[in-house]
Each structure stands twice: as C-alpha cells, then as structure tokens.
Amino acid sequence: MKRNFTPKVLTANDLLLGDVIYRDLRGGWTRDHVSAELFDGEQRAKAALAAAQSEAATVVGPYLADARMGPSGPEPTHFREAFRTRGPSNYAHGKQVEHV
Fold it and tell me: Is the pTM for the entire model greater than 0.70?
C-alpha cells in the first residue's frame, strides 16, 4: 500500500564545510532551515532530489526530510532533523555559537 506524500524539505551536507544545508526557493542552498523550500508535491520533490544528486561537487548525501510549515517557515517533524538544524553537537561551533 502506497503511503500518502507528506511535505518535505531537501537537505544534504556541504561537501567542503560539512554543514547541513537545505534547498531554498531559488534552487540554491541555505544553512537556515526556515529558508528552505517546502515541497508539497511528490513529483517536484523527487525532481529536486534528482537534481541535487547530480551536484556531487557541491553536496553530499541529499535526501528528502519530512517537514511542516511553521510560523517562520518550514519546521522539522522528526527529532533527528530538529537536531541537525542546531549544528554539530560535540562542542559549540557552527550554528551553535549563536546559542552559547
């Protein structure tokens, strides 16, 4: 039985910096989850994923992650994705510097 499609964001890691990145509305990449494009259609999401998989010189491991629209933009629906939005967990650097 096929599952119904739920909204998604396209995420990956930046090849050179290792940062978590998200596909934005312009077709580029952003480090800010709330600036990510929220895909509400399966075909567009799969097309964006296929395009990202061909960007091996820029990104590593692109995939579609469940999300929902929040008051400021897309929000993760799974704890793993929420964790990824906060940056590295071993010590304060990257995105975590802002929260220290």
Answer: yes
The answer to whether position 2 is within a domain reads no
Per-residue three-class SS string for 35-69: HECCECCHHHHHHHHHHHHCCCCCEEEEEEEEEEE
Give the domain extent around 64.
8-89
Cross-strand bridge partners of residue 55: none
Number of domains making up the chain: 1
- Using one digit for the tens of pLDDT, what is the confidence trace for 70-99? 999 999 999 889 888 886 665 555 666 665
Contact 31, 96 (CB under 8 A): no
